[in-house]
Amino acid sequence: MSILENARALAAQEPLCDACLGRVFADQSFGLTNAERGKSLRIAASLEDDTPYEPVDTTACWVCEGACAEEQFNSWGQRCASVVTDTEFNTYQVGTKTPPLIEENEILLRESIGFQSDAGELFKSEYNREVGKRVGQITDTTVDFGRPDIQFTIDLEADTLDVDIHSTFVYGRYRKLERGIPQTEWPCSACNGSGYQGSLTCETCDGSGYLYEDSVEELTAPVACDVMDGTDSTFHGAGREDVDALMLGTGRPFVIEVFEPRRRNIDTDRLEGDINVFADGAVEVEALRLANYEMVERVKGLDASKRYRAHVVFDSPVDVTDFDAALTTLTDATIEQYTPTRVDHRRAEITRTRTVYDADGTIEDPTHAVVEIHGAGGLYVKELISGDDGRTEPSLAGLLDTKAVVADLDVLGVYAESESESFEDDAYFRTIDALSNPASNPTSE
Q1: Which of 54-63, 195-204, 417-426 has the lowest mean pLDDT?
Q2: This prediction's pTM
Q3: Among all residues, which ones are annotated catalytic?
Q4: Quick one: which residues bind substrate (predicted)?
């Protein structure tokens, strides 16, 4: 049968609205709404049959029961827009839960002319698009089929609207300028973060629930959360340094995730200043940029090398010539490290192989030296110096045949192992900047 013959057979099952008729043939003509397509088919059939064209009242339609009326699309579009008037967003998506009866009617309609149950376009796809177009026009935002700023979900049967405000993200690098500060919150293990042991205040954390008063997270993320008017926030770092180590030099990449933000289009330079004032010299951030959820995975999955500076104390005097020779031996060396004693309670006991790219240093006096190590990610530098009772081979202590400990450790740089993993990727941030500028005439499906 031809399209007109099929359309005539469907139209005979009145009352059937133009949108439900046109939707069946949505994959066979383009550039029209389903209502326009259905009307055109009726007019063409009436001309061929030499009968008058008679419009159908959409509210009486047996398939959609009036859901496809223009005023319904308008109402839902306005309803979506009205619940986010106090929320900044640049992208959105609309989803629809189709009532079971409409789904069943759709199948019956198509099967009546021998079509597949999903022929043309599904009811929910039309609803998503038509309501989505109206949301975009009212709010001057653009549709995003990946991960939009806001997800609207319409439940037609329950007559409810669910709004999911997705997180927003800020990328940057931080320097930690004081020792004794962990990267993220560190709940007290003695009281499991409650602050109490039984009915008594926990003596280990003095009732705070945390082993450390401050963290890089606590000195940065709450400020971003406040500026973006979010409900909560979390901190994602590209690895982490020891609590007693400084993070200097180029800083460590991080992403702050703010949940359910009311503001997105913020001045990151101003935020950078606000964070640095709040951190009061303990932590410093720079190069803040708006990012998206993909950056969290990039940061957490970074294959990074690090450069360290260690202040080393030797158990016995060290000869300068021997010291230089030991560092030369470590440069470009492959290091085998069995899980260090200090972390074996939380790490699998295995032997890890890592590379030292460069080792350099100076003797300050016969028992004190400053050593700089550039090594692959996952290299335990303290153990590279001390040997960890033979668990790390080779080591500086082993090569010098004396005990050696790291008195202070500073991280001077965190670098992507390959150019393709670079975080300061201009193309990436150009994409983010583009998403921060709402586009006109959005469409939705």
Answers
A1: 417-426
A2: 0.83
A3: 242
A4: 308, 380
